[in-house]
Amino acid sequence: MRNLKHYSESSSDFLDKVIQSKRTRKNDISPPYKERITTLSSRIKKNFEEYENCFERNNLEDLTPRHTYNSKEEKDIKELYSYSSTHFKQLRKNILTLDGNRQLDTCQYCTIDSISSFDHIAPQSIFPQFSAHPKNLFPACSICNTKKGNAWLNQNSELHVLNLYLDILPETQYLFVKITKEDDSFSVSFFLENRNNICPELFQKIENHYTTLNLLERFSHKASGIISEFETTIKNFLKYPLTFEDIIQTLSQITADKSRITGLNHYKNVIELELCNNYEFKKFISSKYLTTNRTTS
What we know:
Elements: H1 11-20, H2 33-56, H3 71-78, H4 86-96, E1 117-120, E2 137-140, H5 142-148, E3 175-182, E4 185-192, H6 200-212, H7 215-237, H8 244-262, H9 267-277, H10 279-296
Antiparallel strand pairs: 1-2, 3-4
Helix pairs in contact: 1-2, 7-9, 8-9
């Protein structure tokens, strides 16, 4: 996971642009949609101010559901949001553009699947007035979006997932993995642990996030492929005049370098670094490849 930059321009102006982009609809009732939503815009902007105030304090938990719109008005407000429309496409591009003009395409809630939606941080079903608020939209994959669903606050009045615009991720490791040899394969078990003195409040948010999105299990499903790929990489390195220790040290450094880009707690980096230090894995590789390769070379 990594933090992303939030929308930095006027949310009110963004709303105006979205409303302005709406087209006349066939068979629309009178008054037409664009006229109806324009009439509601001043009220929506007042709601936006409430969101901005809570956002600045990183305290979205203080948002209060207000049933100030009737069902038809709520429907109209929700229809402001369209993932595929021009202004939301541009919003997504702005959020996902990193330094060096590099584009992210992987969901940062999970770091597994491709982005295919916006998560409404404050759910549409509870807060329809924030449906088109640009700071309430976070690029996500469909799996994470579905798992989070309409969840808002847990029993401790905390958000179910991290707000990766505001909850600054620690630069220390909190995701760990236990790798155990079982016959000719390896079992993998991910776990969270606050062994590096992360702020307890932030670590609790991280735990909530991983639990809500079922990340530890989802990471485990990817493990066998990562281990097989890592084994193949070592096998290819063995073709060159390097000691086994040099190969492991090189791969460890490569993974450490990747961690600076994708994050120390990226599940793939965590597995690879553990493999570099895992006695059973290194013994397995040595017995399977080392003697044969060195004898025939």
